[in-house]
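So, is this right?
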Amino acid sequence: MLIAATDLLSQRGMSVTVQTESGEEFDFYKDSYALVIGNGTYPVKNGWNPLPGAIKDVKEVTEVLEKQGFNVTQKIDVKKAEFNKAFSEFIYKSGKDKDNRLLFYYAGHGYTTKAATGEDLGYLVMLDTPSPENTVEFDLYSVDMVKFVSDSKKIHAKHVLFMFDSCFSGTVLNLRNRVTPSHITDRIKNPVRQFITAGRADEPVPDRSEFKKAFLNILEGRVEEPTPDGYLTGVELGDYLYRTVPKFSKGQHPQHGKIHDQQLNTGDFVFVLPQNDQNSSEDTGIELNTIATLNIISTPEGAKVYVDSTLIGTTPLRSYQVDTGVRLEKQVNVGLELSGYKSRVKRITLKGGQQLPWDVHLEKIEREPIQPKPSVPETPPETDPSISEEKLLISRNTLQTIVGKDGTEMVLIPAGEFQMGYNGAASTKPVHIVYLDAFYIDKYEVTVGQYNQFVRATGHRPLPDWVFKYSTTDQHPVVGVTWHDALAYAKWAGKRLPTEAEWEKAARGGLVGKRHAWGDAAPDGTQCNFADKNLSKIWDREKKPEDNRADKNIDDGYAYAAPVGSYPANGYGLYDMGGNVTEWCFDAYDKSFYMNSPRQNPIAQIVVKDGENNIVAINKLRVSRAGSWSDGISGIWIASRIGVNPKEAAPNMGFRCVQPVVP
C-alpha cells in the first residue's frame, strides 16, 4: 500500500471544509475527537470468551483515525468505572464546542435483553461485567444503550457517530438495514446522533473483525467510494458496511440509524476521503511504502512458518507481505517448526519498504528422554502417526515452562486446532475441530501443600479432616474442594480454571482420536491411578460388593489418591491427565454442547436459552473431567465429561489451573 506523506497529517488540528454537489463550499468542523475502546482480556470467571482480536482492532482504528485528523483517546480492557470516567470526559470536554465532530468506537462483547417495556435493550460488556444470569450485578457493571442515547443529547458538538463492533440489538437506537445515501447537501449542517453496530442480537461477531476491516478499507481509500464526491457520510458508511460485511462474514448484518429525536436526526457525519488523482501533475508529496516483505529459507526445507502464532506457509517462503501501517514499523514473532528439529522463534522489527531475509539452519533433536523417571511411552509423540498434522510448537524435548505465583511449574500449550470429543457417549459427540489461543497449564494437580498455603494466606475455609484419609501428604492432590474453592485458589494464584476445551487439548498431549492420554491401550496399572485391586478390598469391606467397579486383577500401587507425578507424563509433559482425581473446569455442563460448540475458544453458556434466545433456566452444574482413583476403566477415558454441583466437595475431586499467554 502506498500513501502520500503530505496526507498523513493534512487534517490534524485543522478545520474540515466540505463542498456540495452544486459547488457550495463551507467550513464544517473546527476539531475532531475520538474515543476508541477495546475490551478483549475478559476474565473467564465471568463467562465471557476472551477477544484478543478486539484489542488489535482498536489499535488499527486509532492509527487510521489519527491519520484522518482525529485527536484520539484509546482505552484498552476497561471496567465499568473506567468506562464511565473516560466517556464523561469525552462528551463534556471534547463535545463542548458545537463545531466539533465526535466519534466513539467500541470493540468487545455486546449483549441483548428485554427492557421492562418489552423492547430489546443492548448492552456493552465491560471487563468486570458478570454473566447475565446475575441480573442485578449485570445491570450494575454493564453499559446499556439508554445511556448513549441520553448522554448524546448532552453533547454540544453537532455531529456524533457511535460505532459498535459487537452484536446486540436495541430498539432505542432506531437501527435499520437500508437508507439510500445521496450527494452532500447543506442539510448535513444540521445536528445528528448516528449509530452503527456490527450485527444483530442473534448474530455472533467473530474475533477477527470484517466490520473493522471494511470500515478502514473505505476510510483509507482502498475501495471505491459509494458516492464518488471525495466524502463519506455516516449514512453512506452504514449502508456500505451493511452491503459489504456479509460477503466476508456470513450471518453478520451491520445495522445503522439515527436517534429518535427530530432535533438530532437530520444532519450527517462526514469523513473527508484521501484523494489519489492519477492524472494530477501536482506533487502530492513523497510516497511511503508501508509493505515489508519476508523471505525465509530453512535448512532443511519444509518447515512450517508462523507469524504471531498464525500458520502462513512452509519454507522456502518468498515474498510474504506484512503491512506496517502508517507508522512504517511493526514487530512480529516469526516461528519455524519441523518434525525432528528444534523450533526457532525470533522477534523481528519490520519496516515499510524493507525486504527482510532470514536464512535458518535448524538443529536436529537428539532423541533422549528428558525424564528418566517415569519412563516415556514406547512410541514417542514425534513419530506417532496419530499426532496432529498441525504440529506442536513445543515437544517433549523442548518444553516451554514458567513458574506460577503459587510456585508450581506451568507448561505452554501452543495456539492451534485440535480434535475434541469421542464417538462414545452421547455427551462426547460429535467429534469436532476447536481452535484455542495459547495458554499455560499446571504441570501437576494442585497439591494439599499448595492449597494449605493458600488457606493460610487468605483465611479461606480450611480443608475438612476427612480429606487426609484420601490424600495423606502435602504432595498428594488436594481433594474435598468445591468449584468455588478452586475458583478462589486460582484467583489468589493469579490464574483461572481451565475451560473444558483447554483441559481436553492439554490432556490429549498432541494425540488425535485416542481413548487415553497414552493411546488406545487399556490401563494396566502403569499409566494412571484408577479403581484397582487395592481399592477393591476396601470397597468390599466398606460398601456393597455388588456395586464394586474396581478391577481386582490390576495393581496401580494406590487405593486412594497417589502423589502427583507418580505416573508417566503425556506428550505435553503433563501428569495425571487421566485418573488420580477428577478435575474441575470453568464451564457450565451442557450434555449437548458439542452439537453447537463455537469453533474458537468455546466456553459453555452458564444460561440455557430457547429458540428465540430468551433465558429459560440457569445451568448450575459445572464440568468435571479426567476420572479418578474411584472410577473403573470405563470412567477414565480422556473425553469423559460429567456435570457436578459446584457446591459439592468430594474425596476424589481436585483441580489444576491455567494462565493466559500475555503478548
Summary: Residues 1-14, 176-182, 277-288, 367-398 have pLDDT under 50 and may be disordered. The chain is about 15% helix and 25% strand. The first strand starts at residue 2 and ends at 4.
